[in-house]
Amino acid sequence: EVRLVESGADSVQYGGSQRLSCVVFGNSNLANYIAWFRQAPGKEREGVACINSATGVTTYTDSVKGRFTISRDNSKNMVELQMNSLKPEDTAMYYCAGGWISCGFILTDFHFWGQGTQVTVSS
Hints:
By secondary structure, this protein is mainly beta. It contains no helices and eleven strands.
């Protein structure tokens, strides 16, 4: 069993920065791939960034490339998402997700989900 706990979300102005953290509790071998997804009101949940905790290889969706950075600290079982140059369209509930299949942003590949944390970017 794996439990994911997110923290760090807040309200921020356009162009600002924010860092989200996700701590992995339990059998981390079941959550080798850790991703951040987000869901805005009325929209589908989309993958934002993903990291292979073993190799450090990362994947990003096009809309955040160059602005967001995902990283991991295996000694703390923690994955962080550094978000810079935030835009109002980044406003969403952000979820940390873990799985053992891939970083392909396929929802069903991720078996463990955090409770979500709200990021709000004002213009």
